[in-house]
TrEMBL record:
<dbReference type="GO" id="GO:0005829">
    <property type="term" value="C:cytosol"/>
</dbReference>
<dbReference type="InterPro" id="IPR006379">
    <property type="entry name" value="HAD-SF_hydro_IIB"/>
</dbReference>
<dbReference type="GO" id="GO:0016757">
    <property type="term" value="F:glycosyltransferase activity"/>
</dbReference>
<dbReference type="GO" id="GO:0005992">
    <property type="term" value="P:trehalose biosynthetic process"/>
</dbReference>
<comment type="similarity">
    <text>In the N-terminal section; belongs to the glycosyltransferase 20 family.</text>
</comment>
<feature type="region of interest" description="Disordered">
    <location>
        <begin position="36"/>
        <end position="57"/>
    </location>
</feature>
<dbReference type="GO" id="GO:0004805">
    <property type="term" value="F:trehalose-phosphatase activity"/>
</dbReference>
<dbReference type="InterPro" id="IPR023214">
    <property type="entry name" value="HAD_sf"/>
</dbReference>
<keyword id="KW-0328">Glycosyltransferase</keyword>
<dbReference type="InterPro" id="IPR001830">
    <property type="entry name" value="Glyco_trans_20"/>
</dbReference>
<dbReference type="Pfam" id="PF02358">
    <property type="entry name" value="Trehalose_PPase"/>
</dbReference>
<dbReference type="InterPro" id="IPR036412">
    <property type="entry name" value="HAD-like_sf"/>
</dbReference>
<keyword id="KW-0808">Transferase</keyword>
<comment type="similarity">
    <text>In the C-terminal section; belongs to the trehalose phosphatase family.</text>
</comment>
<dbReference type="Pfam" id="PF00982">
    <property type="entry name" value="Glyco_transf_20"/>
</dbReference>
<dbReference type="InterPro" id="IPR003337">
    <property type="entry name" value="Trehalose_PPase"/>
</dbReference>
<protein>
    <submittedName>
        <fullName>Alpha,alpha-trehalose-phosphate synthase 5</fullName>
    </submittedName>
</protein>
Amino acid sequence: MVSRSYSNLLGLASGEPPALGRISRRIPRIMTVPGIISDIDDDPSESVCSDPSSSSQKDRIIMVANQLPIRAHRKSDNNKNSCSSSSNGWIFSWDDNSLLLQMKDGLGDDDVEVIYVGCLKEEIHPNEQDEVSQILLETFNCVPTFVPPDLFSRYYHGFCKQQLWPLFHYMLPLSPDLGCRFNRSLWQAYVSVNKIFADRIMESVLSLPETEAKVAELIKQYCDQGKIMLLGVDDMDIFKGISLKLLAMEQLLLQHPKCQGKVVLVQIALPARGRGKDVKEVQEETYSTVKRINETFGKPGYDPVVLIDEPLKFYERIAYYVVAECCLVTAVRDGMNLIPYEYIISRQGNERLNKVLGLEPSTPKKSMLVVSEFIGCSPSLSGAIRVNPWNIDDVADAMECALAMAEPEKQLRHEKHYRYVSTHHVGYWAHSFLQDLERTCREHVRRRCWGIGFGLSFRVVALDPNFRKLSMEHIVSAYKRTTTRAILLDYDGTLMPQASIDKSPSSKSLDILNSLCRDKNNMVFIVSAKSRKTLAEWFSPCDKLGIAAEHGYFLSLKGDDEWETCVQAADCGWKQIAEPVMKQYMETTDGSYIEDKETALVWCYEDADPDFGSCQAKELLDHLESVLANEPVTVKRGQNFVEVKPQGVSKGLVAKRLLSTMQERGMLPDFVLCIGDDRSDEDMFEVIISSVSGPLIDLRAEVFACTVGRKPSKAKYYLDDTVEICRLMQGLASVSDQMLSVPT
């Protein structure tokens, strides 16, 4: 049964007028029960909007997050009556720091209506929830959810922090000490609340008077005293690498005595979001390390490490960003981590901060970043010094490099970072996400969806509505009334099952191919990834059968013809690089083997453990792409194999060559059949379909591009398996035999 909340959201997304209440837009208590958006009367006559067309003129986007972009607080008694937004004395305003609110900037013009769904930061009494919901809907277009405190605790402090958060940080629950067992009630709480995290940005606070005052205070405290500030801003948890950062600072002071008395590391330790023994251990280790460093290198008026372990207001944190010469982020595991972005934006400053800093408006800005290679934003910040936080010496060297770097270099790095961060903001993300979503779903309305597989392998694929099973009657009818036919057949997975141990063709398959080849109106080709030696041996009984080996690199138009190449001769010197890598993976993956062809190398793992083989294949693919980056080859992964082959070689070349050869011989095909099962065969389908309106195929030609199995493909037809394909080919061969037996 579809919940009413779900149906209401579907209505909102479709642009239909939402039945959110009576004529005055009064709604009952919205989201008082987790997972149910409203208990609204479905009577369409009492809809808020009496004119459906007026609502349909706007695109509507529903943004769901853990917290609404709304600030709420009680009015004091002496001005309670002045509040016009709620008779219960609540004051509501937009939270300008909310990323959710800033996302609207990336949604385009005013024709987009945005509805926010989420929780308020303040707890609202049940007696007030109806009226608060009404105010937020009418004034801010917000639909609040009211989650009971005990449910919020189970969802956030329970499932999110105790189970989901450790897993996302590679902390597996291998023992009771390292994690809690799965708790279904916590999971159900998480599902009910349906939380999406939101973060804050800080541009608006740069101009606050409090920020300027704090910047002036820090300049007097550090810069005017000849000190250079290094800054760390991290949560006090086991993944942020605070202790590693402190050890690197200690190493810096030991290796570079000139830094003593001059360089100060200010470590802002934000309160841990989780609770437990590990947090307490991190705190104790941090305090003891700071104490040791300050006792060893400190002197009157100078502490090399300043630990701030109390909550800071946002403007205070911005002030530290503005003054810091370098920002250090040494997390051992982390997600995106917005600290480097906040630092870059803050260092760019504004006109008022320039006055506080004593800078001219035209003065180039500068910043330095030392970031862990294990955080999500590291690849985006190409000007940062990337480090392995576990390597203390490496981090210390990076800190010294950041301090000693020339001013023009610092300015260039900051300019590059600021240009990227200022253009790739959350509004840009929202806009590009919607573009991608629209592009992806553009054709879905006209596609048919199929459920494929069982259990964990079940998936839904969207296929073209014209994608259908190739019927025997249809193709036999076309085969009979045509006179010039081109037939291209893949081998593995098409004529021969992938799981077959003996890959050589059966006598039945050879008889079918011989029957087709004896028909002078046919030109039949086997297109395979196998070597030409293997294919020539297997299909030697078939006269007049064309063979394309190694994805079309080698070509034989007839069985007795000399082999030719579709592309220029390839230099296979790259094999000396790729083969040792493949051998290493072959030795560590039981059941795998290497197939050494004349122009290609293939690592096959169909006999290995499926899960382990797939994992090894992914790793091997990355490894080969790295070591062969400068070689003229292509590395690709297929069904149970990883292959390296020369660039430009594809089965599409074979299809084009066959059609061109037939045209040169005055044999413009009016029947084309192409059957294949994997990604390499899609190149053949593409060439054949694109040639329909060209000079290589008769304008009235019957074209059948057929894949094996129901899956997204350029082909318009499918057959379920190799058995059906052999049955189809047998039917065509029988027609040819009948035609040959009829006396002319």
